[in-house]
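I would like you to help me understand the sequence and structure tokens below and explain how sequence relates to structure.
___
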Amino acid sequence: MTARTSKIKRETKETSISVSVNIDGSGKTSIGTGVNFFDHLIGSFGKHAMLDLTVKSKSNDNIVHHLIEDTGIAIGMALDKALGNRSGITRFSYASVPMDESLAEASVDLVKRQYNKISLGIKRAQIEGMSKEDVEHFVFSLTQNINSCIHINVKYGENDHHKIEAAIKSLAVAFRTAASLDKKQKGIPSTKGSM
């Protein structure tokens, strides 16, 4: 089996991002974006998706929104690239993850078609130093660039930190299963014979 790894470098006037990923890793992460809560969310995603994930993000224009957006894009692109033609994968998965009073669900189809329906239910304007819109934009940028059909829904909760973390973890667990190799699956998991 070909190693399911990739490296992405994204260099713009706004940011410098490097990402390396091993889909068949053990959950080892090294995350450095300069935004503590953002590092925590990305680290949680890698840990619970059982990815080996290294992310180094630097802002060139000191605009946090650009850093968060470009980091999401680069991680998504790295995952898409590491999945290759997606031969032999499970393809579909679903996860429901609680965090204290909050419950989030994610459904994943690793088909090579972009569609995302994201509902995080965030109420506060700021969560741990990140703006609500930046948190939402990160999740959208990440899922869009995985080049898949992904639905995430926070069913309920009171604490915005808990809601976001449950959402990220549910995505991680669903991605882990969908990306896993299915011993019964021969070739591309589609009746079309192509993703």
